[in-house]
């Protein structure tokens, strides 16, 4: 377990004393400075404060205009981000691009749409109850991934849409020493829509360096009738070429479920667990909502996938053809699959491919 002067994931460290300095950034204290919270005299809550004045929720949120970028946090280290909470209207979730930069780097280590990062890739609310990511009623996004940095941390949010987004947020961190073997947090989003016939969805293929893979989120839109989750996930590491070192047995197996997630018979069973879950099952309504859509996660917290040189992760979209006298045959699917890969590695990292145009982000 990583510990930062006695701080770290898990209750086992909770009683240990530490000289780490606790800080928090929000619209009520944009810099996180000690003794500087709640001092705003201008902000989105000014009109509501009436005669209450300074100190009474003058600046609880920010307004992020379309086609602009806001810097949510700039922190001088060393330290560790321990918790992030954010909320905004669901219509903005795919149009807001979250980026995080460590130690003054020019290319972000984290680059992903806001909703997908918090396991809500369909612009629709669903509760998520996992260890590192929690989404609570009604749309409170929480991230508990441990994010150490040595020199600095910078968090930005770009609005690629036309409409203004009102964002409430809080970023909790500690200023403390960081061990030499602590790696940097990374996340990368990718989409295949539709997935070409007989091709696989690549979750990530540009990881180079030394680190460990810690999680996958999948927003899976089904474009056919029948079961869609026979596909295998594969991890190609440290020079693997045609065949991977790790090969799963099926999509629902990788998520920790079994037999189509079917419970009771004839229905998908949404579930949340600390390390894996299918929290979102979106059903057709017989009119304009014509496709099934799913959101699922798998966290490799107890079983991180270690690599020393490189890592590539892919997943198949595979269903069944109609039964014949010869039996069942697999059917390669052409689904709409978006994914977020989460990992830690030593810097420098290979720059992420650019986020596509908002038309390619759109949920359609």
TrEMBL record:
Name under which the protein is recorded: DUF2961 domain-containing protein
A Pfam family hit: DUF2961
Organism superkingdom: Bacteria
Annotated segments matching region Disordered: 22-49
């Amino acid at each position: 377990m990583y510990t930062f002067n006695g701080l770290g994931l898990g209750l086992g460290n909770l009683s240990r004393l530490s000289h780490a300095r606790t800080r928090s950034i929000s619209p009520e204290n944009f810099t996180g400075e000690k003794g500087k919270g709640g001092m705003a005299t201008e902000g989105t809550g000014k009109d509501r404060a009436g005669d209450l004045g300074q100190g009474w929720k003058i600046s609880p949120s920010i307004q992020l205009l379309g086609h602009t970028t806001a810097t949510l946090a700039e922190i001088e280290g060393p330290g560790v981000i321990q918790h992030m909470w954010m909320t905004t209207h669901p219509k903005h979730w795919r149009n807001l691009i979250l980026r995080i930069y460590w130690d003054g780097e020019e290319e972000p280590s984290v680059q992903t749409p806001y909703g997908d990062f918090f396991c809500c890739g369909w612009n629709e609310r669903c509760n998520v109850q996992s260890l590192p990511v929690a989404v609570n009623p009604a749309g409170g996004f929480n991230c508990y991934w441990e994010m150490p940095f040595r020199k600095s941390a910078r968090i930005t949010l770009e609005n690629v849409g036309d409409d203004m987004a009102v964002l409430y947020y809080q970023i909790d961190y500690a200023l403390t020493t960081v061990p030499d073997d602590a790696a940097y947090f990374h996340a990368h989003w990718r989409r295949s829509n539709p997935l070409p016939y007989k091709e696989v969805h690549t979750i990530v293929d540009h990881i180079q360096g030394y680190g460990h893979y810690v999680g996958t989120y999948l927003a899976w839109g089904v474009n056919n009738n029948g079961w869609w989750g026979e596909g295998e996930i594969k991890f190609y590491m440290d020079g693997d070429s045609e065949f991977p070192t790790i090969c799963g047995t099926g999509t629902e197996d990788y998520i920790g479920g079994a037999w189509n997630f079917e419970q009771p018979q004839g229905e998908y069973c949404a579930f949340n667990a600390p390390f894996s879950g299918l929290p979102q099952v979106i059903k057709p309504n017989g009119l304009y909502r014509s496709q099934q859509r799913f959101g699922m996660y798998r966290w490799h917290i107890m079983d991180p996938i270690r690599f020393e040189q490189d890592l590539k992760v892919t997943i198949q979209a595979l269903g069944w053809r109609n039964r014949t006298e010869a039996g069942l045959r697999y059917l390669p699917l052409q689904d709409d699959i978006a994914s977020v890969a989460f990992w830690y590695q030593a810097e420098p990292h290979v720059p992420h491919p650019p986020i596509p145009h908002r038309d390619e982000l759109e949920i359609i």
